[in-house]
Amino acid sequence: MDRWLINGVASDSLPVADRGLSYGDGLFETIAVRAGQCRFLAAHFDRLAEGCDRLGIPAPDRQQITDELDQLVAGTEHASAKIIITRGTGPRGYQPPKLCQPTRILGLQTTSPVPDATCGVRVRYCETSISRNPALAGIKTLNRLEQVLARAEWDDAGIAEGLMLNDRREVVCGTMSNLFFTHAGILFTPDLSESGVSGIMRKMTLQVAQSHGVEVRELTVSKADLETADDIFLSNALIGVWPVIELHGQKYQRSDVTKQIMQGLFDMGVIECGI
Amino acid sequence: MDRWLINGVASDSLPVADRGLSYGDGLFETIAVRAGQCRFLAAHFDRLAEGCDRLGIPAPDRQQITDELDQLVAGTEHASAKIIITRGTGPRGYQPPKLCQPTRILGLQTTSPVPDATCGVRVRYCETSISRNPALAGIKTLNRLEQVLARAEWDDAGIAEGLMLNDRREVVCGTMSNLFFTHAGILFTPDLSESGVSGIMRKMTLQVAQSHGVEVRELTVSKADLETADDIFLSNALIGVWPVIELHGQKYQRSDVTKQIMQGLFDMGVIECGI
């Protein structure tokens, strides 16, 4: 990140006693800044609020963060913004302090529009499994070591993403993206009640599908489901949608459903989905 | 903590871009300082080295940390010391940077000897489950949200610890301690190949048991096993051993095996086990 605001003050250092460091006791959001605006900010706030509620951290003030983001983003066309909310500092030990003063961290990194990835990406399966725990599923906590270990498995720039499976051999998500596939005109995506992050671009994708009359099913997904899929794509807040052209050696061609969804996302401001 | 050394420099603030905060991408150790010495320091270093190896973080220099701990501990009789090793800062994204410069954080908090807990503690079961993932089991990573949520479940000072179960309803550990029970002269403790932290006091307890000819079994543990146990105790680096006098309403009386083990730990310098 190029610039940070910590509790409203420009700073790039944090008290080392912050529970965000000690225990990963907090949440984050990564937001696309496009044409000088934070894209889908309300949806990011909703997920952050749900995460705070689930972890028992007082929800941050949306207006305050919006004002601070405005300050940070001013004059920036294309960037990645980050919001981190931690439970703040506290005495030693896992027990949350009674009086919790969350730490509010905003960061901004100017970025360049990436080369068009809508032509498709190559994807692998990861060995590192993703664990199941309904208490943490769906929200975007600072506990991300499984994703780090999964992403560390390959160093081939030709592979854009790796898919993670749980101990039941169900395919849950990419290391940094949500997974979709289509079959016979129906859109499928893994159920996230036990693992994974309920992505903002996933949410928008489901909205677009529904508004276009595409049937959507959230369910457990096996490797075999992906082998017989018409096509596969990945989503996240920064990339929009990446069609998968190859997974574990198998080739895919973009389906009409995927084309329709990408067009719908593009119409909502996801410029990365311009075909 | 009263004092911190970050990469050898007295400081209480950390770069906000450190991956320890972003992803919990690191490890920690909590060490008892007794009579001015870091207790079982070699064993803590061994676990830290194993954790670094598993996460792909360059192992820290033991001599350097030992020297820095000496500097921090000087003149302190009774304290809790902390070592945190993170993967350091890096560009945005889960992928670990090729050139990793770990952050080395040492902390010291002076403490008072606690009232004798060897008379026994009351314990509950937690609702928050502990997830299973062999990639992270046994080591002490900065991803500790499950423990935070489990510890947040109760606020009754009369309950000293909560036991955590996995999704198979196996009892794995306490939020901050390892679990043991005895039955017919045999010492049992949960297998930690899928969850939990392989505690230093657990290791010492197993050593003492073996050196005293007590049969030890590591296995999956059910609530029913604990209901039929002769007695139960908990261990961690700071508390030594806590006999459990009550779990979920059931009362226990200390067994001869537990007495023998506590005496053995006391003889190794675990003064908290003095009866």
Map the helices and strands:
The structure is a homodimer of 275-residue chains.
Chain A (H helix, E strand, L loop, with lengths): L2 E4 L2 E2 L2 E3 L3 H5 L2 E9 L2 E2 L2 H15 L6 H12 L5 E8 L16 E8 L10 E5 L19 H7 L7 E7 L5 E4 L3 E6 L2 E5 L9 H12 L4 E4 L3 H5 L3 E6 L3 E8 L2 E2 L4 H12 L8
Parallel strand pairs in A: 8-9, 8-15, 12-13
Antiparallel strand pairs in A: 1-2, 1-7, 4-5, 4-6, 6-7, 9-10, 11-12, 11-14, 14-15, 15-16
Helix pairs in contact in A: 5-7
Question: Can you walk through the features of this model?
Answer:
- The first copy, chain A, is an alpha+beta fold and 275 residues long.
- Chain A folds into two domains: 3-110, 2-Layer Sandwich (D-amino Acid Aminotransferase, Chain A, domain 1); 121-273, Alpha-Beta Barrel (D-amino Acid Aminotransferase, Chain A, domain 2), CATH 3.20.10.
- Chain A is 25% helix and 30% strand.
- In chain A, strands 8, 9, 10, 11, 12, 13, 14, 15 and 16 form a nine-stranded mixed β-sheet that branches.
- In chain A, α5 crosses α7.
- At the A-B interface, β3, α1, β6, β7 and α4 of A face β3, α1, β6, β7 and α4 of B.
